[in-house]
Design goal:
The protein is of the alpha/beta class and 259 residues long. The chain has a single domain, classed as NAD(P)-binding Rossmann-like Domain (Rossmann fold, 3-Layer(aba) Sandwich), CATH 3.40.50. The strands form 2 sheets. Strands 3-2-1-4-6-7-9-10 form an 8-stranded mixed β-sheet, sandwiched between helices. The protein has a two-stranded parallel ribbon with strand order 5-8. α5 crosses α8. The protein is globular and about 50 Å long.
């Protein structure tokens, strides 16, 4: 029996992944804000992962309750048409779609290391859109909801490269699932709300997106990082993974967390 931890595990791809593992007889731990949406049989943990302290509370709780984690799925996101800051003073996409992956992946590396074939699945894009925007990582001077999500994908590609360098016994998968008819949780203006409605109508079923990624969660080479776009492994973008940028982003995240 495997232990699978899924952030944003009560909707969309995360919920289908939880259901899939529960059917296999695995233990599924789902993190979200609405217990009513959790799959029956899953262990639900309520947490607002936009907040730094909530991420730390989550890793502390799991470290106290679990012996090992076989699969860690990082999928929390909430898209906004307008720039918003969290109670910690951070741009909300940077906080939720990057830091809520940075903190649990590093914080739970010890539990992952206790598993026979551990893997992290980061549903945060494949990082194929160039280097980070170093002049404005938190988009204070110019913001757009779509580019905020693209920027988060770029940062998560660098996170993956850094992570496998520090934890070579753990595999890491960055996943861009494409357009999926999922919840599209967010706060949209009228124009983006209309666009989201069209995407919901034309997107692939969540079950299809899960079927595309499951083969990459099976056994593999420790310390290997792979980017997946709609079920196909894609080359690592050197602009999103240069050693200097990878180290610079790690140091920036640690600086933000130390404030």
């Amino acid at each position: 029996m495997k232990t699978v931890v899924i952030t944003e595990g009560t909707s969309g791809i995360g919920r289908v992944l939880a259901r899939t593992h529960l059917k296999r007889g695995d233990r599924a731990v789902v993190v979200g804000t609405d217990q009513a949406e959790a799959e029956p049989g899953a262990w639900f943990i309520r947490a607002d992962l936009e907040l730094i302290d909530e991420n730390r509370r989550l890793t502390d709780l799991l470290s106290a309750e679990l012996d090992a984690i076989d699969v860690l799925v990082l999928g929390a996101r909430f898209q906004r048409s307008r720039r918003t800051e969290t109670a910690d003073g951070l741009e909300s996409n940077f906080a939720l779609t990057y830091l809520s992956r940075f903190l649990p992946s590093h914080g739970l590396a010890g539990l992952l290391g206790h598993a026979a074939d551990p893997v992290v699945l980061n549903v945060g894009g494949a990082g194929r859109f160039g280097p980070p925007r170093w002049d404005d990582l938190q988009q204070r001077t110019w913001y757009h909801g779509l580019t905020a999500m693209i920027q988060a994908g770029v940062l998560n590609a660098a996170l993956a490269v850094d992570f496998v360098g520090r934890h070579p016994a753990i595999r890491y998968v960055n996943n861009f699932p494409g357009t999926v008819a999922t919840s599209f949780a967010g706060d949209y203006d009228e124009a983006e709300a209309a666009q989201i409605g069209r995407l919901r109508a034309t997107g692939k079923p969540e079950e299809t997106a899960v079927e595309e990624i499951l083969p990459f969660l099976g056994s593999g080479t420790p310390g290997h990082r792979v980017a997946v776009s709609e079920g196909v492994a894609v080359p690592l973008d050197p602009q999103a993974s240069s050693p200097a940028d990878v180290r610079r982003l790690y140091d920036y995240a640690r600086e933000v967390l130390a404030r």
